[in-house]
């Protein structure tokens, strides 16, 4: 029995609370995971897990062994990381989840540059903005937008998100340009709905440091960011879209920004990972690379956005343990 591999299998079973999910995240057959746990218990002469047809519980011995395994595996990662600094190339598989539009616009055009720099690292990119249980689903890190409020997660801010309120020239010629937030009551939107609940997203505006929400009426609702922007381009209605998606259309004149003096409050874009999972050298190089990528992107360079975000942070400081990504209050960028 490979004891190191057995420790990795055991910790993943505990973290995912499932033999099947552990097997999937490790790329192993479920039978191999089950056999490995049995061999490990036989070797240690203790019961690590209590298994029934419906439930999986960690025994007191198993909980103590898990904590030691986490530390041992972290130490091994540190040793390998120190060797990496001596010229060894990081290798392995990284599973990342991020919003689809963000991935297609920023990440995918540069992914070949990442592979040229780190040829032995395999990226598994999941495109979604649904809530992800990183431990249970075997995801190494996620890229998310919004304030974070879960102390079990660590967030590294890599950029700032800004939404803009836009419409096509055709729509504005036909229905007029709203000059006040109240005037939106007479206008139509392409509504965005959250697939999990069906709830419609309201427009939001920063008015003198306070958030103002405006429900919008519309004849069509979508739950895809590209379709959302496409509806605006076709003149169906006004939308409040991600600036990085709207910017090329604003530059070409296909979309026009309205209510420029009242923008939604900027939100942080962060790479998020569990604090109790050691950041491996392979994941670390990806996090550093993606932070550099966002920092160099013209789509997120706007000094006014940065200044407004800092002013808002100073006026509304988050609690010390505030580190959880938002769910349905996020902007649509899936």
UniProtKB/TrEMBL annotation:
Keywords associated with the record: DNA-binding, Transcription, Transcription regulation
Q: Which InterPro entries match?
A: LysR-type_TF_proteobact-type (IPR058163), LysR_HTH_N (IPR000847), LysR_subst-bd (IPR005119), WH-like_DNA-bd_sf (IPR036388), WH_DNA-bd_sf (IPR036390)
**Flavoprotein keyword on record:** no
Q: Which residues form the HTH lysR-type domain?
A: 1-59
Q: What's one Pfam family here?
A: HTH_1
Q: Which family does it belong to?
A: Belongs to the LysR transcriptional regulatory family.
State the name under which the record lists this protein. LysR family transcriptional regulator for bpeEF and oprC
Q: Which organism is it from?
A: Paraburkholderia unamae
